[in-house]
């Protein structure tokens, strides 16, 4: 497992600098004569970092390259849950962080002097490596908007196979919810749903989960009594 490699490790960190860095709320932003705006507004720490990475990559004409690297990191984090815990550990030393950054950069295929490498080093410097999983997800949201896609979040109690996800995607694409846009399927697992699905798209939520039905039944019984 990749987490074992991260649990060993050690190396060096530099500065996430694409243009002139300026400190904003404990992270770096970039001032250039050409202003770049993210396609959608994101919130939270991971949203702020994802937006900064998107902006820096756009200014350096490296958006597609960064997107591939971040997508690779996101898949690695999904495949190894222990890795997420390691990144968020409060006991990481500076040597641990440097080592982890090097390993992450290797996984992403990042250039040692490139944006992704520098970005990972900035996360480490600011004790935000634990936010990487969220940053990967939020960056995917930005890229989807950049490509004219709309996220179709499908949450189930157990992992769904590709055939089932494809059927759901086609069904939603034919509905009014898709608004004629290209869909990007994001599958998630939440055992607390017990069964059924929760489908989210364009700010709308369709809750078809068993847990929701049980909650409604319990409320009806409580009101009746």
UniProtKB/TrEMBL annotation:
<dbReference type="Pfam" id="PF00213">
    <property type="entry name" value="OSCP"/>
</dbReference>
<keyword id="KW-0066">ATP synthesis</keyword>
<dbReference type="GO" id="GO:0046933">
    <property type="term" value="F:proton-transporting ATP synthase activity, rotational mechanism"/>
</dbReference>
<comment type="similarity">
    <text>Belongs to the ATPase delta chain family.</text>
</comment>
<keyword id="KW-0472">Membrane</keyword>
<dbReference type="GO" id="GO:0016020">
    <property type="term" value="C:membrane"/>
</dbReference>
<protein>
    <recommendedName>
        <fullName>ATP synthase subunit 5, mitochondrial</fullName>
    </recommendedName>
</protein>
<dbReference type="InterPro" id="IPR020781">
    <property type="entry name" value="ATPase_OSCP/d_CS"/>
</dbReference>
<dbReference type="InterPro" id="IPR026015">
    <property type="entry name" value="ATP_synth_OSCP/delta_N_sf"/>
</dbReference>
<dbReference type="InterPro" id="IPR000711">
    <property type="entry name" value="ATPase_OSCP/dsu"/>
</dbReference>
<keyword id="KW-0813">Transport</keyword>
<keyword id="KW-0406">Ion transport</keyword>
<keyword id="KW-0375">Hydrogen ion transport</keyword>
């Amino acid at each position: 497992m990749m987490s074992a490699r991260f649990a060993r490790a050690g190396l060096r960190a530099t500065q996430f600098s694409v243009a002139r860095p300026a400190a904003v709320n404990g992270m770096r932003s970039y001032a250039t004569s050409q202003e770049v705006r993210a396609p959608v507004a994101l919130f939270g720490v991971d949203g702020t970092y994802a937006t900064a990475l998107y902006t820096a990559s756009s200014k350096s004409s490296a958006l597609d390259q960064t997107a591939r690297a971040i997508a690779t990191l996101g898949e690695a984090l999904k495949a190894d849950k222990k890795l997420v815990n390691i990144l968020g550990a409060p006991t990481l030393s500076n040597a641990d962080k440097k080592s982890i950054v090097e390993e992450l950069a290797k996984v992403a295929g990042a250039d040692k002097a490139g944006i992704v490498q520098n970005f990972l080093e900035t996360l480490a410097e600011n004790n935000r490596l634990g936010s990487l999983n969220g940053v990967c997800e939020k960056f995917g949201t930005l890229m989807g908007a950049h490509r004219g896609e709309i996220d179709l979040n499908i949450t189930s109690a157990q992992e769904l196979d590709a055939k089932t996800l494809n059927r759901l995607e086609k069904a939603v694409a034919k509905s009014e919810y898709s608004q004629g846009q290209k869909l990007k399927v994001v599958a998630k697992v939440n055992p607390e749903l017990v069964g059924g699905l929760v489908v989210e798209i364009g700010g709308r939520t369709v809750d078809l989960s068993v847990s929701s039905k049980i909650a409604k039944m319990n409320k009806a019984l409580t009101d009746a009594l």
